[in-house]
């Protein structure tokens, strides 16, 4: 019996139009699709009825499929002859455990291919009118996970270094950081980042209910609380956020999305995303 191929596929931020051509083709041709919790419903609905679609998402405080179970399922289905799409939100190798799964597949002798996707670290800010880099504002870009507790002694993140980067004009993008927003803000303030540094949070980027809130390092925690920012959301810290004021009115609406601002307020009546 032939061994199937596992495709580690990036689903992009949520809008099916942002899937790569290859990702779209593989969803039609797969025998089975294993999808993560953050993959949008619009993308999950694309495979034909003949494809076995399995939810293997990990949900904070809720049902979870362990990584060991996912690895085992990938290997079992492929060795049974199925071509498997492992569908991940954004890009499979940007905090998506694509590298870990690739190692497991290689160790098991299962052929695989990585199919990059549009990461929300770039798409989220861009769709909201915040260019991650800009000649007049930022010549560096740092992407970190927001899951880590900044106060733990063995943190892999050097918040002092991150603070220096932002202070020097760099852009910091924090993924999956809604729950720890106050901690991350405190860590940046402790690292010397000024309280008036612009911040934007983009919730559900590229989807019909996309929502953006802006403020400063001093105000963003309260602003996010006021408007009820929920995961998935991308946080952008740096001077590039100020560009949004000059472009947001002219961005085409993604759907019925709303936007709101703090120190850099938009007109909430204008659907700018």
Automatic annotation (TrEMBL):
Stored Gene3D superfamilies: Cobalt-precorrin-4 Transmethylase, Domain 1, Methyltransferase, Cobalt-precorrin-4 Transmethylase, Domain 2
Annotated Tetrapyrrole methylase domain residues: 5-220
Keywords: Methyltransferase, Porphyrin biosynthesis, S-adenosyl-L-methionine, Transferase
Keyword Transferase listed: yes
Superkingdom of source: Archaea
MF terms in GO: uroporphyrin-III C-methyltransferase activity
EC number: 2.1.1.107
Gene Ontology biological process terms in this record: methylation; siroheme biosynthetic process
PANTHER family: S-ADENOSYL-L-METHIONINE-DEPENDENT UROPORPHYRINOGEN III METHYLTRANSFERASE, CHLOROPLASTIC (PTHR45790:SF3), SIROHEME SYNTHASE-RELATED (PTHR45790)
Record family assignment: Belongs to the precorrin methyltransferase family.
Subunit structure: Homodimer.
Protein's UniProt name: uroporphyrinogen-III C-methyltransferase
């Amino acid at each position: 019996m032939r061994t199937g191929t596992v495709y580690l596929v990036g689903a992009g931020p949520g809008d099916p139009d942002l899937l790569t051509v290859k990702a779209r083709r593989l969803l039609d041709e797969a025998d089975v699709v294993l999808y993560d919790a953050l993959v949008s419903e619009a993308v999950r609905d694309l495979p034909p009825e003949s494809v076995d679609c399995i939810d293997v998402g990990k949900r904070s405080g809720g049902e979870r499929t362990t990584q060991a179970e996912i690895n085992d399922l990938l290997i079992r289905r492929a060795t049974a002859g199925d071509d498997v799409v492992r569908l991940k939100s954004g890009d499979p190798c940007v905090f998506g455990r694509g590298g870990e799964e690739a190692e497991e597949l290689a160790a098991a002798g299962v052929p695989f291919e990585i199919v990059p996707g549009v990461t929300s670290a770039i798409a989220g800010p861009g769709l909201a009118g915040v260019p991650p880099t800009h000649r007049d504002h930022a010549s560096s870009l740092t992407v970190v996970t927001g899951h880590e507790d900044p106060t733990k002694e063995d943190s892999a993140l050097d918040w002092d270094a991150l603070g220096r980067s932002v202070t020097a004009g760099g852009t910091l993008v924090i993924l999956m950081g809604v729950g720890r927003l106050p901690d991350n803000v405190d860590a940046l303030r402790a690292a010397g980042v000024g309280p008036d540094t612009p911040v934007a949070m983009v919730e559900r980027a590229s989807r019909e209910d996309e929502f953006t809130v802006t403020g400063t390092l001093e105000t963003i925690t309260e602003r996010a609380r006021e408007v009820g920012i929920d995961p998935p959301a991308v946080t952008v810290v740096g001077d590039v956020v100020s560009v949004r004021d000059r472009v947001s009115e002219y961005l085409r609406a993604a759907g019925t999305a709303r936007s709101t601002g703090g120190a850099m307020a938009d007109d909430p009546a204008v659907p700018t995303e």
